[in-house]
Amino acid sequence: MATFAAQPVEALVSRIRDLPAQENDIVSLDDRLIQAFSRSAVSSGIEKDSILQRLEQPEAVTNPAELFELQLRTSNYNLEVSMISTLTRKAVGAVESLLRS
Nearest 5 degrees, angle CA 67-CA 73-CA 76? Predict the structure, then answer.
């Protein structure tokens, strides 16, 4: 079960690493955070739509193996959205702390 929980974290880390490196342009931390968040939001939205489309197919809800796969995908989606929410809240808190000092 730990490997399933690590997958969303690894996916988010790889998305952050894939941010475009611009040699001469200065990219603010704000912009990097917005880019990472928007990519994650789009990816999560696509996954949610995919899960919902699969649930509308009759063979998905009658086959136990398909149901198990959908449960895993839903669980991973939930973990990823929760992690994005937590990371965003922590980043906002860190920025607010820096602005106060």
Answer: 140
Q: Yes or no: say if 46 and 74 are a contact pair by the CB < 8 Å rule.
A: no
CA distance 98 to 11: 28
Note the Cα 26 to chain centre separation in Å. 25
The string of DSSP letters for 33-80 reads HHHHHHHHHHHHHHHHHHHHHHHTSHHHHH-HHHHHHHHHHHHHHHHH
pLDDT tens digits, 6-47:
566 677 667 766 666 555 567 787 788 788 888 888 888 898
Q: Per 3-state DSSP, what percentage of the chain is helix, strand, and coil (rounded to 5)?
A: 85, 0, 15
The string over 71-91, giving b where at least 16 C-beta atoms fall within 10 Å of a residue's C-beta and e elsewhere, is: eebeebbebbbebbeebeeee
- Of all residues in the chain, the percent with pLDDT exceeding 70 is 76
pTM (whole model) above 0.90 = no
